[in-house]
Amino acid sequence: MRIAILAHVRQRIAQPFAGGMEAHCWQLAAGLEARGHDVTLFASGDSDPRFAIDPVVAKHYECVFPWAEHRGSAPLIAHLDAGYAAACDRISAGGYDVVHNNSLHRFAIEPRRTAVTPTVTSLHVPPYDALHWFVRASATPGHRLTVTSATQLAAWWPEGAPAQASVLHNGIDADAWRFSPQGDGSALWCGRMTPNKGPHFAAQAALRAGVPLTLFGPVEDPDYWAAEVAPLLGPTVRYGGHLAGAALAAEMARASVFLFTPCWDEPFGLVAAEAMACGLPVAAFDQGAAREVIGEAGAFAPAGDVAALAAAIGTALAIPRLVPRARVERMFTRDIWLDRCEALYRAAGADRAVLAA
Question: What is the spatial distance between Cα 315 and Cα 310, in angstroms, rounded to a whole number?
Fold first, then answer.
């Protein structure tokens, strides 16, 4: 199939990944290419050159409009609208069999566009006003919508989801996150250093539990980092930097427990699945889709409760490492995910064919 992947352009689609959305899009492009599909990645022009890139914008917008997304920036909105309008026009004229839309932009889901090119839109976020009503109006033949968890399906459509919407769990290349039968007794946390990811809670809980902790990920919010996280660093809590996949997988394999501390309704939690593949049980805040993803491979605490999270660390450490690995192999491998993607592409194409007839 000729497949267009339309990415979010806040960050580059390249390693080291800024977050789960970037990892998802990179793995999708790489996985589909490995299956023999002809893939064009519509992303920022500074994304990974291993892919055929058709740039939506020349550079990811965080390097041009840092943090502007969170301030309702009119110049940023105009910049993105211009980029996505032109990219969507090129996709419509490009003869693609399907577009997999990860953009979180309203233009890609307009019925006039999905009527031309069968579209699968993956929603990686809870419903928010800037996109919510556009999504609800877009559930038409030829447009399939996915969310990453049952929790998110209920959040987007509390009255019941339309036939075009379904749960598509994220998948990982389990071979890239190699299982290790034993850890060194330490804890690991990974993600963007922002308040809604909660690394300060992870550090506080590890200190309380007496377990060494290493934090990994980009410092996206320097003010938050300086005020809430940096003061907790010391002999038993350290910052390990922002690592690419292979280096991060090696660090995960050495640890004994993963801390997952979402402070918002996390739609999936890709990094938790990656850690589980390495054999790490998870101590997590019970928020968003955490329990749906982690299941029997972890122990849970109410969101924001440091004492309960510290207790969950001890409980999680007692879970055999084969348990999290088995859960990933059963539910979250890249092959399972890509099989489902291909089925959705065929379904969207069949919808479009019926509509055209």
Answer: 9
Considering just the CA atoms, what is the radius of gyration of the chain in Å?
20
Name the 3-class secondary structure at 281.
Answer: coil
| C-alpha–C-alpha distance, residues 199 and 308, integer Å | 15
116: Cβ contacts below 8 Å, ≥ 6 apart: 92
CB hemisphere CA count around 312 (13 angstroms): 27
User: Cα separation of 318 and 304, whole Å?
Assistant: 23
Burial profile 80-94: b = 16 or more Cβ within 10 angstroms, e = fewer = beebbeebbeebbee
Task: Provide the token pair at 89.
Answer: 């026009």
284: phi then psi, degrees, rounded to nearest 5: -135, 150
Give residue for tokens 């038409």: 140
Q: Which domains occur in the chain, in start order?
A: 2-171+333-356 (3.40.50.2000), 174-331 (3.40.50.2000)
Distance in angstroms (rounded) separating the CA atoms of residues 259 and 188: 6
Residues 290-313 pLDDT 10s:
999 999 999 999 999 999 999 999
Please give the pLDDT value at position 68: 47
